[in-house]
Design brief:
By secondary structure, this protein is mostly helical. Helices cover 80% and strands 0% of the residues. It has one domain.
């Protein structure tokens, strides 16, 4: 695929395989299915890389690296919701046929990506400077470089991914994801040669490898100047969505954060076994949400009828459960064997990892988030996610104080996840029973 195959801004974009009739719908579903397969493959590569790293990296060294890599989750607010607003608005503008408005929003998002990356570079340089000033071991230095690479690359990667999904260019997204996955697979081999230093190098190069093909195949370049009213509109619409997403991101790492705050680096390293399972399994419902959101938003842009989105609630929940259940069962019953074969140093972390596997069943409800995002049910989602986050932090803190260790934290997350899933489905059902919301 050459660069000329990608559409230019200024023309009305079309989804890959966009043809009228049943054949066109089949092509669209085929492209989305291939996108899901490549996303799953990327997750498998990441999971395999994590197991490989766990085989050669000591838990304490793993904990040092993971502590710094957690920083990115707490700096995700820097874009002020612009990417979230773009993700919500692009399908709506496509449904309305307003190409000029679409291009202005792409330009505003691209401007924010550059400034967010610049702030990330400044933060990373500050951390590297502190590590050098305190003369910490070299592993801290390489981990700080890996964190910096991620903070710089992630805003651009997020901008491009939003465009690929929102424009429903899943065939092109599949191509760039395949290239990124191949390069990431090569980076996963670095710990074999350099141990913990190689693991930090893997994170450093993976951020670059994921970004490079997306940058080269930019799905819709910014060709008009950024204007402040459009930027302000994206912030106004996207900030509440981003708060929901940020709370969700913090919810996903809350158990690791509690362990990092209250326990040793070796304990955090042991808990990484549970974390790598959670990260690997989340890609299934998350990919489903990526595919559903453009469909849901475009449908709402065409009808302005909240009730017409009811079917997507059940599709998101049922298809999500069908997709994730087999993987959960595989890891639940096979986690002990995998740990003995690949990373025997982490065997004490197996019980917590098995409980985390059960928690992942509740992520089947993540697909309904597309409906909540489109209907701007942000207040309810903030309440549900914020309560779940508070439960993990408070319950995890108490569990550690009671001597339950990482297993107690894993059980706290399980029950918090159950609450979160029930709240997500209930909120989506309630929103699709209301009158149509005013369009923006």
């Amino acid at each position: 695929m050459s660069r000329s195959d990608f559409p230019l801004a200024g023309a009305a974009p079309a989804a890959d395989g966009a043809r009228p009739g049943r054949f066109g719908r089949w092509l669209a579903w085929r492209d989305e299915a291939l996108f899901a397969v490549v996303a799953l493959l990327s997750s498998v590569i990441a999971l395999g890389g994590n197991l490989l790293a766990a085989r050669v990296v000591d838990p304490a060294d793993m904990g040092i690296i993971m502590r710094l890599m957690l920083v990115q989750n707490y700096l995700a607010l820097l874009h002020l919701g612009v990417f979230s607003g773009l993700q919500r608005n692009v399908p709506l503008e496509l449904g309305r046929g307003d190409v000029q408005r679409l291009d202005r929003q792409v330009a505003a998002s691209w401007w924010m990506a550059r400034w967010t990356a610049l702030v990330g570079l400044a933060v990373g340089a500050g951390v590297v400077g502190v590590v050098l000033w305190l003369r910490l071991p070299m592993l801290h230095f390489w981990a700080a470089l890996a964190m910096t690479s991620t903070l710089v690359c992630l805003p651009f990667t997020t901008h491009f991914d939003v465009l690929y999904r929102s424009l429903r260019q899943f065939r092109r997204a599949t191509w760039v994801m395949s290239v990124g996955a191949g390069l990431s697979a090569l980076a996963c081999l670095l710990p074999l040669w350099w141990g913990a230093m190689g693991l930090a190098g893997r994170y450093f190069f993976t951020a670059l490898a994921v970004l490079a093909p997306r940058w080269w195949g930019n799905p819709r370049p910014a060709v008009v100047p950024m204007d402040r009213p459009t930027l302000g509109e994206l912030i106004r619409i996207g900030f509440p969505i981003m708060v929901c997403s940020q709370l969700g991101g913090l919810f996903n790492v809350a158990d690791r954060s509690v362990v990092a705050a209250r326990m040793s680096e070796a304990d955090l390293g042991m808990f990484q076994l549970a974390s790598l399972v959670a990260t690997g399994l989340q890609v299934l419902p998350n990919t489903l949400g990526m595919i559903l959101l453009p469909r849901v938003a475009r449908r709402y842009g065409e009808t302005s009828d909240a009730a017409s989105l009811r079917k997507f609630v059940w599709q998101g929940a049922l298809v999500g459960f069908a997709a994730i259940a087999p993987a959960v069962l595989f890891f639940y019953f096979g986690m002990g064997t995998l740990a003995r074969v690949f990373c025997p140093k982490y065997l004490p972390g197996v019980p917590a990892a098995e409980i985390t596997c059960l928690s992942m069943l509740t992520f089947a409800a993540s697909g309904v988030g597309a409906v909540i995002t489109t209907l701007r049910g942000n207040t309810g989602l903030i309440l549900v996610t914020g309560t779940g986050l508070a439960l993990v932090w408070l319950g995890g803190w108490l569990a550690i104080s009671a001597g339950a260790g990482i297993v107690g934290v894993a059980w706290v997350r399980f029950w918090a996840q159950c609450f979160y899933a029930a709240g997500m489905v209930g909120l989506a059902i309630w929103l699709t029973r209301t009158q149509p919301l005013p369009s923006t």
